[in-house]
Amino acid sequence: DLALIEDLHTSCLSFFLQFHLFRTLCQHVEAELLSEVRHATPQTGCCCCCSGESSCSPEPAQQPRAHFGTGPQQKHRTFYEFRTYCIHPDQNAAFLKLTNEKIHLRTAHSELVGYWSVEYGGLNKVFHIWKYDSYAQRAEVRATLAQDPAWVSEYLSKALPMLTSQDNEVTYMVPWSRLQSPPQEGGVYELVSFQMRPGGPAVWGKAFQAAVTAHDAPGYGKLIGAFHCEFGLQNRVHALWWFESPDHRAEIRHTAHHDARVVAAVRNNIVNLDSQRNQLMLPCPFSPLK
């Protein structure tokens, strides 16, 4: 038993000696690494033009700055309400006929930018854009419409049963875009909706602008406007295009696939893109944008 106790004592002593040596070695390595870091870190003292006889006050170290802005800010209050209505399939023609006859009751209160029937990328759907100078104006318009007996009895009460759903978004023109008119009447429109990755225009704004404007050139379609969603899905942007016809749009798309300038701009933007939806639309007879 005594021999066993002595062996155990010897083993413990050996373990503690080895542990002490290991800790000393770690402390030495840590000190060497810290010394190398100090020598490798640039000093924020005198500038390189100082001589040994002159002195400069050390410049304060740069403090990290938090950037809360997400891109260029809106400089005006004008916004555009996007509205999408889905119609019962057997009521599509009746809804368009009723709207064509009664839309003047609605446009008497605020400005209609355009009204379209979706041809490709959706069935039995209409899409329309309304312009407002402020949220106060929109609230006033909605309140007035609710008290307009002609609007309620002649249109609203008949149109609502024809719909399966309604959706809206509040959008602003992006700072580098202005609402344009098509070069001629009688064409088709494409609404391209991009769901961008979180971060806002500060992250993807320049790449998106380059991709869109690359297509807005002679020989391509006409950009009517680019919009950034304020209420609805965030980080969502829309581009509204005009083409002479669906076949004209198909030809342009084929051309773009072989245009190195367009391809490069699109590739730079696609890294910021989560999803995209395209809808080809026909302007209604009463649409201001035809």
UniProtKB/TrEMBL annotation:
Pfam families: NIPSNAP. InterPro entries: Dimeric_a/b-barrel, NIPSNAP, NipSnap_domain. SUPFAM superfamilies: Dimeric alpha+beta barrel. Signal peptide: none annotated. It comes from the Eukaryota. Residues 80-178, 189-288 form the NIPSNAP domain. One of its GO terms (biological process) is mitophagy. Coiled coil: none annotated. One of its GO terms (cellular component) is mitochondrion. Belongs to the NipSnap family. This is NIPSNAP domain-containing protein. It comes from Oreochromis aureus (Israeli tilapia). The gene is nipsnap3a.
